[in-house]
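From the shared-data thread, chain only:
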Amino acid sequence: MDILFYILAGICVGFTVGLTGVGGGSLMTPLLLMFGFPPNIAVGTDLLYASITKSGGVWVHHKQRTIQWRIVSLLALGSLPGSILTIIILHFFYQDADQYAAILTTTLGIMLMGTASVLLFRKYLHKIIWKKSTKSMSHQQSTGITIVFGFILGALVTLSSVGAGALGTALLLTLYPRLIAVKVVGTDLAHAVPLTLVAGLGHLLLGNVDYFLLVSLLVGSIPAVYFGTKIGSKLPDYILQPVLASALLILGIKYVFF
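Structure, as tokens:
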């Protein structure tokens, strides 16, 4: 019977992602924790789940030429070493997953609150950033800052499986405010796939991936994303995203403070 619950979870998350555009990590990991999975299994499994489900979108954006590969490379120069270093620390500084479970849940809560804030105030923040972007950074400054922030994002995503989408988008909007929306989405997605793949493989080496759960989630979510996208295109974002963001904010507060 467990497989039915896991497939249903994949359907629910996939449908919601298609409906709202909100990343699967911010939905799937809390759901797996509610199912009773340990934090390390929830995070590790979700990272590989994310890398697989996002890969199809990268191919579409690549064909449409809406990916800025230079920016993807700069982010990856920071995020991939950040992810690998985080895995190394977890492996050598902790004897078992129970010892770093609290770190995972606290980071998850912080990232959920950050994701919720981005969703709630994205348009407002974008307007502010756009107005203040008359003085653009030099090429060297933007390169260095992108790599540094990529490193931080890589570590946080590896610890929580959340943030590669929403926080990655916020990062791109801040550092590259003149980048058009569709290229922000495509670039962020192209960076999220290698980041979640490397982080997921790292957790796989730590024994933090449940294969049976992973396959079950994929079976449910892949078709559900398609149907959610079809329906979501006919529904207003100003209703769906604030409701979901509020739920993520509540979950984030729960994992950080309770």
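The radius of gyration is 17 Å.
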